[in-house]
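seq:
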Amino acid sequence: MRLPTRAPGSGFTLIELLGVIAVIAVLTALLIVAVLKAKERARQMVCVNNVRQLGLALQGAVTENHTYPLVINPSWIAVLQHTQLSNSTNRTSVSQYLSQGVWQCPSAHKPSGFSPDKGYASYGYNWYGLSARTDMNSLGLGGHNVWNGPRLAAPPVNESEVANPSEMMAIGDGFEGGNKIIHDGGMALWRIYGLQDYLGSTERSDARHQGKANVAFCDGHVESPTLQLLFEDTSDAALVRWNRDHQPHREKLGQ
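struct:
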């Protein structure tokens, strides 16, 4: 049985044209998705490289001083920038270089709804560990005392006080949170409770690296743990990575 053939010059039928358009639309959608994923992978790699450089700068500072930088006076950011990253004596303000070079994650953007006086940083320092702001002795790296009274963090944490450098988080995406609420744009990497979502911060944080964060450890290596592992997981393996004594300190949960 012979199939019907199209008469010469008759062109495509409407159904055939619609079919071609549908195929082109599907291919275009797939191409757009692939391009977006490729761009995000590229941004992810830039962020990983930034965090790795900050981690190496931190190692350099610790090697020189045998202590970890403080939160303030001088800040950990100033220490890394002026002694490890630029060797510059020009005391440029922190706000001027937080949006430049290795300090800027290409997937982190300050929302337009933020108040002008509210800063926005891509990366944070594990200065508190699992400690609350009111604790008298922080479990993190930013100094033994927290910001109380005269806002001092001294004395600094000695290099020898970090029990397991390969398992102690040091610097990463600037996320602070707990109980499924996360704030972005902070200068601390901190598991803290009692936060409320700020202008969609939890959704924005989850979208930055598809539910992950890039983190440099005290020994310099970089990992990309999930936000769930960082801010929700209550296993010992998840909790010990916050604290310099490599203990879970489960009593701090919910503070």
